[in-house]
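Session log. Operator J.P. requested a structure for one protein chain; no other inputs attached. Running the standard single-chain path with token output.
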Amino acid sequence: AGLGGMGGAQPLSVTLNGGVVICLEIDEARIQRRLETAYLDTWTRDLEDAIKQAEAAKKAGKALSIGLLGNAAEVVPEMLKLGFIPELITDQTSAHDPLVGYIPPSHADEDPNETRVKDLEGYKQRVFEAMATHCSAIVDMQKAGSIAFDYGNNLRAMARKGGFANAFDYPGFVPAFIRDQFCEGRGPFRWVALSGNPEDIYKTDKALLNLFPNDEGLRR
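Structure written below.
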């Protein structure tokens, strides 16, 4: 879940590695932005349609990213009910900000901004409870065979506030993946062109392609 500032990289990261992904997002404008920048391939409002597309792409061996408009606290539990268990699941909603970063399930005619003003504490409690439901579904998927990990957005801590005691049953991404990368002498790095010239980024790409001719993943 999440196609915002950090979460928006999720669909491209999966397709770069030849995978198929369903990315949940509650804000349609964010889905459209990711489509415009080609980080996301397609989108739908219908969960069953998203699952159908994902399973067809997997069967065909085709990399595909699918945006799904919906609330993660509702959709992830619904995936469980439908028996859809992804091979991997994570979350990049702005759960670290329970006031405006994570939207709880709402009525069709409800404006979360107005509700927040009218009943701040009540609204926050709804957010915590939604996170608990969301996180609980992730743990259930893990029990059913998914690889689950947290990306440091504080969902697990907030879910515990919402009453889900087992929120930390799945690990953070650093102990799960990054430490092993460091043990191999590699890590996650970000390249910045202080010149502001895209050509300078391409120069770093070319240097890495020359330095690591046999590292297929890095080259991709």
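Operator note: Strands lie at 20-25, 42-44, 64-69, 88-89, 147-148.
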